[in-house]
Amino acid sequence: MGDPLIRTRLLIGDDPLERLNNAKVAVFGVGGVGGYCVEALARAGVGTLHLYDDDTVSESNLNRQIAALHSTIGQPKAEVMARRVLDINPGCRVDAVRLFYLPQNAGTVDLSQYDYVIDCIDTVAAKLELVTRCVTLQVKIISAMGTGNKFDPTAFVVTDLSKTQGCPLARTMRKELRKRGIYHLKVVYSTEAPTPPLQPMEAELPQDSGTRPGSTARRDTPGSISFVPAAAGLVLASAVIRELGGF
Length: 247
Fold this sequence. Notes:
By secondary structure, the protein is α/β, with parallel strands linked by helices. The protein contains seven helices and nine strands, in the order ααβαβαββαββαβββα. It has a seven-stranded mixed β-sheet, sandwiched between helices.
């Protein structure tokens, strides 16, 4: 077999590719944003990927999630993405971890083993817990902010949380992290103002959803389109790949 990364090697050289192959990265949440992030990490040659998610593919994911196909509906997203990673790079050491990361179970995850943690979680309490633990352990982390109700894939930027404006999730994260003594966090967020859905919809959550911090009996469901979460995921991956590769 030839060199599947020859085109990447022509661009960045051997040493960065070796660093990427030696890197160990965790992605928490492999849905709309996280799935595309995982795809880019795998295609860049990241050597070890741990994928944390306990959700399954549903029909409503088909419009925006790379794991979602009619053939994968009902299957665990983490496992679908792990199989995809191996189909792209059979040498990747990929592990699908069926886990909804929560403050209650956070202690079961050894974050210190990772060179980078990527936060694509959609509940505030879980994001805060993950960020706080990574900061305490001095593990590099980057967090995705809100992508719902957005249209412009070019509006995503990599910046510090303290510099974000107009993003409700970023505002909440900034406020809550300051209470914990954390004033800086690398994030990907959109400078675009959210567009209200044409037909606001309430989504019924499972009866046991109360076990997931930040969830309620009912919540507003944001609108989303195919290319926006994907763009956020690729921007996340690009920031991590460039930093790990050192180029």
